[in-house]
Structure formats: C-alpha cells, structure tokens
Design a protein that fits this description.
Elements (H helix, E strand, L loop, with lengths): L20 E7 L4 E4 L1 H7 L3 H4 L14 H12 L4 E8 L5 E11 L2 E7 L6 H20 L5 H18 L5 H19 L11 H61 L5 H60 L10 H57 L3 H33 L7 H13 L5
Helix pairs in contact: 3-5, 4-5, 6-8, 7-8, 7-10, 7-11, 8-9, 9-10, 9-11
This protein binds flavin mononucleotide (FMN).
Amino acid sequence: MGDLRTSGVDGRERAMGAEELFFSTTDRRGVIRQGNSVFVRISGYSLDELVGAPHNTVRHPDMPAGLFRLIWDRLNAGRPVGAYMKNRTKDGGSYWVFAVISPLHDGYVSVRMAPCGPLFEFAKRVYAQALRLEREAVQRDGMNRHDAALLGMAEIEASLWKRGYASYEEFMLHVLPQEVSARSRLRKRGYARPGAQGSIAEVLSGTGALDGMLDELVGRLAGYQKLGEELSTTSAKVLDIAHRLNASVAAATEASELVAESAPVLANVARVMAGPMNKAVDALERLQTEFGRLRTDVAHLRFQISLASLYNDMAAAFAAEVFDRVAPPESLTAVPLLCDAAGSCIAEMSEQVQRVNAALRDIAHLVTQTGTSLEEFRRFIGQWRNLVLRHDAGRVLGDKVHPIDEEISVSWEWMELLRNLGRQYESAIVPCDPALLQTHLNKIRIAPASL
Ligand SMILES: Cc1cc2nc3c(=O)[nH]c(=O)nc-3n(C[C@H](O)[C@H](O)[C@H](O)COP(=O)(O)O)c2cc1C
C-alpha cells in the first residue's frame, strides 16, 4: 500500500480520553493487520485504509528517528518496549500516546493510552533536542539518515542519563508503571457493564478478576519497595559507622603493638577483634550490591505486571465496546491474542517473583550475619577494654578506646533498626500465584469462542 498521508501537519492536537485505548497488531515489518475503533476515530483513517499500511503512516515529523531506533532494537531482541509517541492524523493534526509494543507470535501487538504521568513533559523536551540534532546533522552537515538516527538515539540516552537513568530500558521500566497507575486513577467509568451477558459478560468478569489480582500485587510491591528503600538507607548508615569503627580498630591494633612487649595479649586481642569487624563490613557491602539487584528485579516485575494489566484492560475495553455497540462483535477475536500477550507477561512475572524472593532471603541472611559479627566484635572490644585497664595501658591506649566506645553505641542503635527492618522484610515475601493468574486468563481466552 502506498503513502496514505494526504496533507502536511498543522498544530491541532487531538486529546484522547483516559478510558480510551488504541490497539493495533502488525506483521514483523510493522505492516498493520488489525486496529480498533479508537485508532480509527482519532487517526482519521478508516480501518480499511489502516490494514495493510505500514505503521509509519501515522508517524509525525516531530518524532526523532533515534527513538524508533531504540524501539526496533528492543523489538528485534524479542523484548517488549514502551515509549511516548506523537502521531499524525490523516488531516495533519496530531495526538500523543504512551505506546507499548510486544513481540507476539509472528508479529507485534501494541496498546496505546493517553499519557498523563509526570515524565511526559520531560520526554517531550528530550525528543525536541534529539530532533534538533538529527535535523542539523542531515541539513547542515549532510549526514545520512541512518547515522542521524544513531546520533538522535545517543542524544536521548545521554539526556536520560543526566536525569539519573542508566539506560532507555531503565527509564521505560520506570515510566510504564507510572503511566498505567496514573491512568487507572483518572479512569472514571471502568469497563464493568452490569447488563452484559454471554461471552461479553465472561470476558468482563474474567478481566475484572485479573485486574483485581494484578492491582493487589502492585500495591504489595509498592509497600515492599518502600521497606527495601528504608532498609537500604539504614544499612548504608551502618556501613558508614562500620567503616569508621574499622579505622578505629586499626588504630587500636597499631597502638597495641607499642605495648606488645609489656602486654602482648593486648595486640593479640586487637588483631582477633578485627576479624568480625571485617566480616560485618563485608556483609554490609554485599548488602548494598544486593539492594541494587533487588531494585532492578522489582522494576522488571512492576513493568511486567503493568504490561499484563494493560493488555487485560484492552481485552475488557473490546468487550465493553461491543456491548456499547461502538465496535462489531468480530472485534472480540482480538481477545485471545491479548490473553497470549498478558500470558507471556505472567510467565515472566513468575520468574521475576522467584528472583525477588531469592534476593529477599539473601538480604535477610546478610542482615543476620552483620548482626552476629557486630555482636562478636562487641564481646572482643569489651575484653580488650578490660585488658587495657588491667595492664594499666590507659595512658598509651586511652584515646584509642574512647572513639570506639562512642561509635559502638551509635552503631548499636542503627543495628537494632536494621534487624527490625530485616525481620519485617523477611516476612514480606511476595505471594504470587502465576497458575491462578493463568487459569483466569484461560477463561477469558475461550469466552469469545462461544460468540
Ligand atoms: C506494533 C507497532 C506499533 C507501532 N506504532 C507506531 C505508532 O503509533 N507511531 C509511529 O510513528 N510508529 C509506530 N511504530 C513504528 C513504525 O513501524 C516505524 O518504525 C516508525 O513510524 C518510524 O518510521 P520510519 O521507520 O519509516 O522512519 C509501530 C511499530 C509496531 C511494530
């Protein structure tokens, strides 16, 4: 099919409602196979015009090529991707969406919603800057389009990096859950249709139940993440004290060597007490690494839950549209496909949940280990202090004992807090039953067959 665009662009922006979701599927090259009524109404094209046309039909010239490069790199690697996109309508207007695209069977499926999260304005600025660079490179320096897209991509990544995101992936993992939860807060009506019957009612009740389960999981994950952040800050504080304690112990050991001839036991105990202190520092350092890993795993898990809930919502939206007679009954044929898309998210989720729970157990173990080592160290330091008194070495070692005593008492309070959080954390294992989620999905998947 040729270029369907009939006019240039104008400044008119079409807004889409929080309830509305765009749907399309394509083949592996991005040629459209299916669309929904929202896509038709907002883009201004008929479904006949869209089906068989490449998806770049709706591409807006304000979009940097670098973004599509990032998108296709992920899709070609077989992974889902999410991005803000400005699209062009048939009559030259525009509309913004937050799009998610997933590889599915022999093509791709995409669901798009109105962007309303806090990073939308930031994304617009990033795109404008990348587009400016790409245009300058092409128009002023004669760069080819392929290289200009690479330049735009690097610019987008650099802007995200400045904002604290190590990669586009990290940004996307953060943004999709934000957009999905902002949307669910804004949505007024929802998809429940009390008068629905037959397969429509089945799809709506199945998607409603799944939505509730995913929502609950997201809620628990949020509490879990907050606890994780507190634990991470507390352990960083204990690590800081432990580093200072370690330095004081090293100074005490060195000073004990000075009286090694008259009181060798002092140096011996000092050397031994450095052992548990080093172990505690080691466990605390490993805790920091574990927290980093956990943060990444939780971010992936939240992303998959949000993606599954979006595909689930899309299935519900189809059923609601058919009930409202906005879409023909045949559009329910998209439901099994959406169930497959949500199903692969759930499969990923169950792997992520296992990883998160394993990290949680490791963290709880390291907290216990830190406590045991610090306890052991405290026993040695008590002995060492007594020995200093007994050998009358206070004159030489007195100023070494004092900072250790002070740091120990501070560390003890923090350690108590750490232990408390560690206990709460251990009992916060994320309960997730993927088999139950899949059972719900299966019910939704077969419902349209009875149409
Ligand atoms: C499922 C799917 C949905 C897509 N949705 C859009 C879209 O809404 N807007 C858009 O400009 N590109 C979309 N794309 C990307 C286009 O295929 C295309 O890469 C992009 O418009 C850039 O056009 P160009 O490659 O001709 O420069 C989508 C691709 C796929 C696979």
